[in-house]
Amino acid sequence: MSKAAILIPGRLHPHAESRIREAFEVVSIARPDAMLLDEPDRERIRGIAVASGIRAQSVDGEFLGAFPKLEIVASFGVGYDHLDAARAASLGIMVSNTPDVLSEEVADTAVALLINTVRELPMAEAWLRQGKWHSVGSYPLTKGTLRGRSVGIFGMGRIGLAIAKRLEAFGLPISYHNRRKVDGVDYGYHESLVELARAVDTLISIAPGGTSTEKAVNAEVLRALGPSGVLINVGRGTTVDEDALIAALADGTIMSAGLDVFANEPDVPEALIEARNASLLPHVASASMHTRTAMADLVADNLLAWFRTGRALTPVRETAHITGP
Ligand code: DGY
């Protein structure tokens, strides 16, 4: 029997690609543009494997509709705001993502970024490397500390929960806002994000991207967080109104921010790069070899499971009801 043809439109983790090549025929194009394939090739494609978090690799409804035999899109990453899952569902196409295998890594990074932000550890390290310990003396005491803080988590999914568990062990009170109250989670729930921001001084966003969360962390939320407020974002850059954040950091509306994600990656506004009260990372929350390899395996395993059993291992919510032919 001939192997199913899987399209890789753009860059994909090399381990995912080599696992896919073992079982399938791979067709590669530079980006998700159906015009890069001729019609006979478009008609053979039964699966797509694509990475999330790369602006030029968005998979829109038109692209999905260009492949009459397309059955599954296996996406690398837990966030899938780069692809039109609702359209995929309406076309009967399965979409899978890579949850769980990255939760602990992302939660570790979120806590590290929080500590870096309040205790200024990257700047303290730069102080040492620049010889200032010798020439000037000790690094100045930090205004920020985790002691006495209360934490609000925006997005209480699997990663939100992993972050909450860690910070509970730090002795910090936790509350959250989510689309809805989560069963079995005892942390205090706030119906709105602004209410949550009012109740805490440390807001950690791990909310997914997409229209329902776009610029959810806005000027009003930042004002509610207050002058000792700290914002950490390890979800999607689009959930924060970056202009409002830049203004809030500049005029003291909040104290500081730690950001792993940005609205327009890899472009980071110059005002954030220059802000001394912002700690910035280049979208690395899940980026260890260990975790990225596990995510790559899950992309390949979803394709294998689909073509063997008609079921994906980790379907996204919108397509969870879809089964194979
Ligand atoms: C994810 O898995 O969504 C991470 O942000 C990597 O893109």
Unreliable stretches covering 5 or more consecutive residues: none
CATH architectural arrangement of the largest domain: 3-Layer(aba) Sandwich
Q: What fraction strand?
A: 15-25%
Provide the number of structural domains: 2
**Strand count:** 12
Beginning-to-end CA distance, first to last residue: 17 Å
The strand order across the widest sheet is: 8-7-6-9-10-11-12
CATH class of the largest domain: Alpha Beta
- Write the CATH homologous superfamily of the largest domain: NAD(P)-binding Rossmann-like Domain
Rounded Rg: 22 Å
- Helical percentage: 25-40%
Q: Give the SSE string.
A: EHEHEHEHEHHHEHEEHEHEHEHEH
Number of helices: 13
Characterization of this structure:
By secondary structure, the protein is of the alpha/beta class. It folds into two domains: about 5-100 and about 290-320, Rossmann fold; about 105-280, NAD(P)-binding Rossmann-like Domain (Rossmann fold), CATH 3.40.50. Helix content is about 35%, strand content about 15%. It is built from 13 helices and twelve strands. It has helices at about 15-25, 40-45, 60-65, 85-90, 105-120, 120-130, 130-135, 160-170, 195-200, 220-225, 240-250, 270-275, 290-310, and strands at about 5-10, 25-30, 45-50, 70-75, 95, 150-155, 175, 190, 200-205, 230-235, 255-260, 280. α3 (about 60-65) links the parallel β3 and β4 (about 70-75). The longest helix has 21 residues, at about 290-310. The chain is elongated. The protein starts with a strand and ends in a 16-residue tail after the last helix. Bound molecules: (2R)-2,3-dihydroxypropanoic acid.
